[in-house]
Amino acid sequence: MPVISDTAYPRLPATEPGPGELERFTPEAAELAFARQRTRQPGPRLALLVLLKVFQRLGYAVRLADVPPALVAHVAASAGLAGAAPEVAGYDDTSYRVRLLALVRGFMGVASYDREARGMAARACIKAARTRDDLADIVNAGIEELLRRRRELPAFSTLLMLARSARTLVNRGYHRQIAANLASGAGERLAALLLVPTGATRSGWDQVKADPPRPSPQRMREHLAHLAWLRGQAVADEVFKGVPDRKLRQFAAEARALGAADLGRTVESRRLALMAALLRQQVAQALDDTAEMFVRQTTRMHNRAKEALDEHRARQAAETDALVALLRQTVLACQDQEAKPDARLSAVEDLLLPDADAILAVLVHRRWWIRPGPRLCRCCRALHRSGRCRPAAYDRRAERHGRDRSHAAGPPSAAYRRARPNGLAESVRLHDAGASRGSDRPVQAGDRGRAALAHGRPPGDRGGYRRPRAQPHVGAWTPELRPHRLTSNGVGTAASALQVHATRWLRERSGEASGLRLGSVPG
Description:
By secondary structure, this protein is mostly helical.
């Protein structure tokens, strides 16, 4: 329940106003002229000025007895009516107050709070309640609408009652919408959570509300099992279409504060909406914890790989320096123009051949990696089922085990091959048995179809790379004639001359070979 200080509802200062605050209540020349024109006695004139300045500041009228004495004295001194200050409070219970307030509203151009103004405030509160749940925010929306329409503000309790009614109306509509969008059987599944199974001490609803412990590498299996159970109880996200996230968070907070017995006594639509909202929030929280654990595991794996790489480089530093020095000596031996070519070659052989085996052992390409563990793979599966992108590490491990392969016959990704300057894929050599290809030809980086054969034929392949089958029943140079156009005696029907696309040279050559005239089949 908000208090008046939590909202933008204007009010008089609780303490004696200071000099700076009193300056805001100083009457202007036009206001003094208006008061002299409308009143004759000093008492009513001072009461009119006090009501006018307070109305300008607050937007509504207050009792003159509630105005701080310092403020009344300041207005009286500014208007030259210091002697009338003691009698101002006596006008609250007279007909003068009604007449003076009518003059103030007319001077300010503000209408009183009536039935029409109540409708304006109610519509503004309902509009705000569709996206907000705090009563203070809804009250502020009603205040803003009344001030914009130049209407007098009602009492704070009136605005608070309007805000509460608007929020209840909007929430009831959202409850019914969520309950109507539930799939068949979802209502019974949610209702079963409120019952205590035979032999158990707690209901399924208590398990839903219980926050699982933060996942750790040792308790990851337990956490993922709880996540799978929550997913089995939750409803589809399409059920909450059109409901703002702020409302769903509020519904989840309400459901968490209610027990199974309390939910059983509520209206069915509200009960189903609150339970579905809390299940949605719990699933999201469990997924966030799983993603956090995945990030921690991958960061740890990355750090371990980086440390292993640094150690490997440190161990190979001496060998690398020796190779660089050997390369320098080899280049200098080749650049010796005074020596003959045979002598230069002999010098290079003397440098390289004695340590050839050691050099080749150092130059062998090694790949260093750390395999993702089973905990990391389980995290990946849980995140993949939630619609998140599957990490590449999980895809590679799944392919090795033969699981979850979307395209097992696809070529290796760019991460596994580095193109040479001439476009050849490094360390990939395929042997083609075809007669038209070399028996030991390095595969090109662009030969994606051939590279796929190293992993098996793609699932969608229908043998399109094979040669077309022979058609012995089709006549020579009649490409548009099909076997189904031939009769049982092998003669067939005549093909239109427009369907034969042959040049003059082809016609002459075919006529010499077969003695038949192209463009028709003899009948």
